[in-house]
Design goal:
Layout: E1 5-8, E2 16-20, E3 35-39, E4 47-50, E5 56-59, E6 78-86, E7 92-100, H1 102-114, H2 122-147, H3 151-170, H4 178-183
Antiparallel strand pairs: 1-2, 2-5, 3-4, 3-6, 6-7
Helix pairs in contact: 1-2, 1-3, 2-3
């Protein structure tokens, strides 16, 4: 048996989806106690949840113990520590870190859609694109760092992207076009 899982983007800030991509010795799988442990950013204790083999498992704030039924809330962005195990759990397991970026991606998408691509001042429009590209690369760098267990770098890149995006939004992009004109003549 080769245990593995894949985190699937739900394009929703309220859910986390994890698919079982394991290869089992038998079909149907004969495993006992399949469990997913999830440590949510900002929490130190992992939540252990039964894991449905050969299926997509979807979690929300209620299932993760962050809110009480029936209230749900968006799941936080940040590094999630995931561990899938079957009995005996100390031998049969796989662990991964993932950087969840659904909330910042939603904010980025909103800023991008407000960007007037048909604006007459091409230097301002181009500068806004440069800023948004920079934010996008920081988000992608954060994801890559988390995938490679560089948790501090992942958090630094995420926080920088978030600060730059907040500044961009608060200042109506904060563009004068000067940066583009100076750096990209």
């Amino acid at each position: 048996m080769i245990l593995d899982f894949l985190v699937i983007n739900t394009y929703d800030t309220s859910t986390l989806a994890i698919a079982d991509t394991s290869v089992y010795d038998t079909d149907p799988p004969s495993v006992s106690a399949p469990t997913m442990q999830i440590t949510v950013p900002g929490y130190t204790v992992p939540v252990a949840i039964p894991f449905n083999v050969q299926q997509i498992n979807t979690y929300n704030s209620i299932i993760l113990g962050l809110t009480a039924f029936p209230a749900t809330c968006p799941l936080p962005d940040g590094v999630y520590f995931l561990k899938y195990s079957v009995a005996p759990a100390n031998v049969n397991y796989v662990e991964k870190n993932i950087m969840r970026t659904n909330a910042i991606q939603e904010k980025f998408d909103s800023a991008f859609m407000k960007l007037d691509m048909m604006e007459c001042d091409s230097a301002i429009r181009t500068q806004a694109k440069v800023v948004l590209n920079s934010v996008y690369y920081m988000i992608q760098g954060s994801i890559a760092a988390a995938n490679n267990c560089a948790i501090d770098a992942a958090n630094r890149l995420y926080n920088q992207a978030n600060r730059q995006l907040d500044y961009f939004i608060a200042n109506q992009c904060g563009c004068t076009g000067n940066n583009y004109i100076i750096n990209f003549p």
